[in-house]
Structures are given as structure tokens and as C-alpha cells.
Amino acid sequence: MSGRVVASNRKARHNYHIEETIEAGIVLTGTEVKSVRAGRVSLADAYAVVERGEVWLYNMHIAPYAHGNRWNHEPNRRRKLLLHKREIDYLAGKVRQQGYTLVPLQVHLRGDWVKVELGVARGKKLHDKRRAIAEREAQRRIQRALRGRDAG
Predict the structure, then answer these.
(1) I want to staple 45 with a disulfide (CB 3.0 to 4.6 A). Which of 23, 59, 94, 151 is the partner?
(2) Which residues contact 135 (CB under 8 A, 6 or more apart)?
(3) In this structure, are residues 57 and 41 in contact, taking their beta carbons and an 8 Å threshold?
(4) What is the pLDDT of residues 49-79, one digit of tens each?
(5) Rounded Cα–Cα distance for residues 59 and 31 (Å)
(6) What is the pLDDT of residues 16-56, one digit of tens each?
(7) CA dist 146 to 41, 73, 132, 142, 149, Å?
(8) Sign of the C-alpha dihedral, residues 95, 100, 101, 106?
(9) How many angstroms separate the first and last alpha carbons of the chain?
(10) Is 62:78 a contact under the CB 8 Å cutoff?
(11) Can you state the percent helix, strand and coil of the chain, rounding each to 5?
(12) Residues 23 and 115: beta-carbon distance below 8 Å
């Protein structure tokens, strides 16, 4: 991934084990591209689905363009993702497996193109989330202790 990150789904890494990632193009209208470039994107409840050989992104919120006219875009419409057929077939096979889902991790700009990074993910159980929080807090305590030792 290269380019400027416009939006990221921070909760995805908390709620899911991300097994692998794949970059996809996205079909947007003109006012949507302008809103994305302005950073007015939210991936909070977004998810992707493979339907009839195509990948669709649902619930990605792109705010209406401020200077748009009456033909401004629908903020939460479904959007088609652009992938090669073999990539779509691979993702469809993964999603068919028990517990896998496609979660958008971030939206970024690569040159003039808007790209979406999709993660093939498996949902975390509550005890996995608690363990991750405990490990993160333990790391913070260690770093704090090391900083205190260096200062003294």
C-alpha cells in the first residue's frame, strides 16, 4: 500500500483476526471522489460481500460533496469493488468457509485512484479481545517503567 490514507477502520483490528489483505479499486461518481479527497469517509459499519461474481461494498459512508448540486450522491449506497476474476473467486472461496468475512480496513489514494484495502477476517471471541487489551496494557506498563528508569 502506498499513497495517502484517507480513512481507516480502527475497530476492524479489534473485532477481527485479519488473516490477509487485498487491495481493490472502487467505482465512484465524481462528487464521491471529491468528498473522498476531502477526507469525508467513514468505514465504521462497512463490509464487503461477493454476489454473482462481483464484490460489493456496503455501508461505507461518503458525505455529500459540499459544493455538489442536486445530483449529489447517496451517502451510504452500495459500491462495486474492482478485482480480477481469480481474486474474486479466491475471496468467494474464503468467505464460504466458516467464520470468514470481508472487512474494509482503509481507503487510500494511489495517484489519481481511490483504493480500498480489504481484509479477509475471522471474528474474535470476547476472551481474545480481553487478552489483546491485557497484552497492550502490559506493554504500556513495561514502556513506562523503562522510561522512568532512563530518566533517573
Answers:
(1) 59
(2) none
(3) no
(4) 888 989 999 988 888 887 777 777 777 889 9
(5) 17
(6) 878 888 999 999 888 888 888 888 888 888 889 888 989 99
(7) 39, 52, 21, 6, 5
(8) negative
(9) 41
(10) no
(11) 35, 35, 30
(12) yes
Contact 48, 56 (CB under 8 A): yes
* Sequence-distant (≥ 6) Cβ neighbours of residue 41 within 8 angstroms: 6, 7, 35, 60, 61, 62, 63, 107
Helix H or strand E encompassing 147: helix 126-151
Residues whose CB is less than 8 angstroms from the CB of residue 58 and which lie 6 or more positions away in sequence, other chains included? 46, 47, 48, 49, 78
- Confirm if 20 and 102 have CB atoms less than 8 A apart: no
pLDDT-based confidence at 84, cuts 50/70/90?
Answer: very high
In sequence order, what are the residues at sequence separation of 6 or more whose Cβ sits closer than 8 angstroms to the Cβ of residue 130? none
Residue recorded with cell 467513514: 42
> What structural domains does the chain harbor?
4-124 (2.40.280.10)
Cell of 109: 489514494
Assigned C-alpha cell, 27: 467505482
User: Could you tell me the pTM of the whole model?
Assistant: 0.73
